[in-house]
């Protein structure tokens, strides 16, 4: 399906749906909670710096840490698989399930499997998938992609969820009580958990030193699935590695606070080896990450620990919604990782930013997000992918701004034009004047005013 460009998708979202207010309020609420949670930590900046250094070091020595992780995991009795692409990942998981005649899979939140469209792949081959994170379950039932990486159903109102549950789970019509709806989902999923033969999770951190994986959830759904099912599968992007178990203390403190303002996520589960009579598989996935790692100006984006803080603080994300980006990871971080995957398809996303820099300020691993957004713009413009309607005015602007007399002449002309033909001037820039009018022009330029007042003064 052809992706709709961000500006158009955001416009549709803002004008045609009931979601924007709910999404905006929820994101601001998370941003405020994050601010309160980090200001009580005196060493917050030190933690960010340490996390950034650990990630930079790991990514710079990734091949060694991957081998160390594999060797230690194998020594623990874990079976390791390597997937170069999303299709490889889906195929590996499908074969594991198919060989054991597993009828369905319980899955805890994994943006990697979303990225690789695993649900669709398995369902097309006759294996049902139940997303067990509440937000993921809501968007799965609604047949929609997640709109946020931590709060997948952020865009949904209680009324919409009530309606959805009424249709899919026969809950009481128009009952919008959050506790009632949560308990209904819990009851529905409980039977799936109790009879599951296979459980799959994403991975927040893979520890090279121990060959173990750490998964954080607030609902305990990863633990319930993995501890009950005989077959456990964990899917991990190559960038999720950290060298030592001790490093986890840095990241777990940063992640919960940045994501939801909690001192720590409710459940931090560490999986070392298979259960007695069980099987534990870890699929290590590349899917474009190695190529991204080789990009001199952009590789540090792989430090991301997927906390979602840059989304909650971004005015463009909050207004336009997560779906408008057309990719699993939306918001500022999505806008710098998507062009690294496919610059032709996602060439609009680096422009979906005000470049205010708030994303970089809140990022717990100190990714220079707005700097990379700007750099991507440069790359895209230089590759000639920008529409003439955008590049031509920029060229004209650049010429005018670089020559004093041209600048003065154009300023004089613009003031006159705005004075004599204000309606026409507003009509000439309809997108700018949709929500506001062009300002009344001053009688003279600052330069003229300055010369006059300098003489007078
Ligand atoms: S880029 Fe930084 S703020 Fe954004 S999701 Fe990743 S870690 Fe969080």
List the helices and strands and how they pair.
Layout: H1 6-16, H2 19-39, H3 44-60, H4 62-75, E1 79-83, H5 86-99, E2 104-107, H6 111-115, H7 118-124, E3 128-131, H8 134-141, H9 158-169, H10 178-195, E4 198-201, E5 205-207, E6 212-217, H11 221-228, E7 231-237, E8 241-242, H12 247-260, E9 267-271, E10 279-285, H13 289-293, H14 309-313, H15 315-320, H16 331-341, H17 358-362, H18 369-382, H19 388-402, H20 404-420, H21 422-428, H22 446-456
Helix pairs in contact: 2-12, 3-12, 9-10, 16-18, 19-20, 20-21
The structure holds iron/sulfur cluster.
CATH topology heading of the domain at 41-287: Rossmann fold
CATH architecture of the domain at 41-287: 3-Layer(aba) Sandwich
* Largest sheet geometry: 6 strands, parallel
Bound molecules: iron/sulfur cluster
Beta-strand level of the residues, as a percent range? Answer: 5-15%
What is the CATH domain class of the domain at 41-287? Alpha Beta
SS-derived structural category: alpha/beta
Distance between the amino and carboxyl termini: 66 Å
In total, the number of strands is 10
Tally of DSSP helical segments: 22
Which term fits the overall shape?
globular
Helix content: 40-55%
Mean pLDDT: 94
Write the CATH homologous superfamily of the domain at 41-287. Answer: NagB/RpiA/CoA transferase-like
- Rg calc: 25 Å
Describe the structure.
- The protein has 457 residues and is α/β, with parallel strands linked by helices.
- Among the domains are: 41-287, 3-Layer(aba) Sandwich (Rossmann fold); 400-456, no CATH class.
- It is 54% helix and 10% strand.
- The chain has helices at residues 6-16, 19-39, 44-60, 62-75, 86-99, 111-115, 118-124, 134-141, 158-169, 178-195, 221-228, 247-260, 289-293, 309-313, 315-320, 331-341, 358-362, 369-382, 388-402, 404-420, 422-428, 446-456; strands at residues 79-83, 104-107, 128-131, 198-201, 205-207, 212-217, 231-237, 241-242, 267-271, 279-285.
- The strands form two sheets. The protein has a six-stranded parallel sheet, with helices on both faces.
- Helix 3 (44-60) crosses helix 12 (247-260).
- The termini are far apart.
- Bound molecules: iron/sulfur cluster (SF4).
- Iron/sulfur cluster binds at residues 258, 304-310, 333, 362-365, 367, 369.
